[in-house]
């Protein structure tokens, strides 16, 4: 049997707060295979970020089990199994773009030559080849987010965790970055977990869409996309695309009843 890259079985997570327990995740079961692009969509507070944080070993489940590459999240973190892209680009303003991308490599003790080679390669991948020497404030919001994707790619982890990376961008920039991300995913084959509030974004990007319901966060529906791997933006006008979007919307609506 092929081992899942991410496997969640009976996952529960309860936060103890001053106002009593908050159940963020309830009995989440999910298998993610190698090279899949999986979007998590659901209303605010349904546990999407919490799920990503469990995978990244930033939160401890209170029940059930998660494995990442067949290991505990802690072992996977130590093996540098993933890169993490946050909602805000989170670049250090006093470092150049190249310096920001190199930072995790510096912390990990890569040599200067190795850092330079990797920074050049990942900036090229996100089409920021000529921008290594610029500072974050010299780049648009979309370019900054591309730089933060480059930073997550720099140490060649085979899993990419992305928490609403394009949420703050206008729709035209977002469309372009969606196209670029899809091309990048096709080129690199990284298993990608992607949080979004946007139905078209989830349907356009994903091989699998996980629809979640509000607290306690449960999986309402898991949709294996019938769309082909090649996806021009115009695919969003096809009946196949509209049918998947409809099913996602139905799942979100059912979660509210
Ligand atoms: N550290 C924490 N302590 C207490 N409660 C928390 C903590 N982190 C998250 N929560 C609660 O757990 C629930 C799930 O939060 P989470 O951030 O995972 O939701 P989300 O689906 O990512 O939301 P959004 O779409 O708004 O980002 C929310 O009710 C949130 O208030």
TrEMBL record:
GO MF entries: ATP binding; ATP hydrolysis activity
Family, similarity comment: Belongs to the ABC transporter superfamily.
Residue span(s) of domain ABC transporter: 8-235
The organism's taxonomic lineage, starting at the top: Bacteria, Pseudomonadati, Pseudomonadota, Alphaproteobacteria, Rhodobacterales
Keywords: ATP-binding, Nucleotide-binding, Transport
Protein name: ATP-binding cassette domain-containing protein
Signal peptide interval: none
InterPro entries: AAA+_ATPase, ABC_transporter-like_ATP-bd, ABC_transporter-like_CS, ABC_transporter_ATP-bind, P-loop_NTPase
């Amino acid at each position: 049997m092929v081992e899942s890259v991410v496997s969640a079985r009976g996952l529960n997570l309860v936060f103890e707060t001053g106002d009593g327990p908050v159940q963020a995740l309830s009995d989440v079961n999910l298998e993610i295979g190698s090279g899949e692009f999986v979007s998590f969509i659901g209303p605010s507070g349904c546990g999407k970020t919490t799920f990503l944080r469990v995978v990244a070993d930033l939160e401890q489940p209170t029940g059930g089990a998660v494995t990442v590459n067949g290991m505990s999240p802690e072992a996977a973190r130590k093996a540098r199994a993933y890169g993490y892209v946050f909602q805000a680009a989170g670049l250090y303003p006093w470092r150049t773009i190249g310096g920001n991308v190199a930072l995790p490599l510096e912390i990990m003790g890569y040599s200067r030559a190795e850092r330079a080679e990797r920074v050049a390669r990942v900036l090229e991948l996100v089409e920021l080849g000529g921008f290594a020497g610029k500072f974050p404030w010299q780049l648009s919001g979309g370019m900054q987010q591309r730089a933060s994707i480059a930073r997550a790619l720099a140490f060649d982890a085979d899993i990419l965790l992305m928490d609403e990376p394009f949420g703050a961008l206008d729709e035209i920039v977002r469309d372009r970055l969606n196209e670029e991300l899809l091309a990048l995913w096709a080129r690199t084959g990284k298993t990608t977990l992607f949080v979004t509030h946007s139905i078209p974004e989830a349907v356009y990007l994903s091989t699998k869409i996980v629809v979640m319901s509000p607290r306690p966060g449960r999986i309402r529906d898991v949709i294996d996309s019938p769309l082909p791997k090649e996806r021009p933006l115009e695919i969003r006008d096809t009946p196949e695309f509209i049918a998947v979007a409809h099913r996602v919307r139905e799942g979100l609506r059912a979660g509210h009843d």
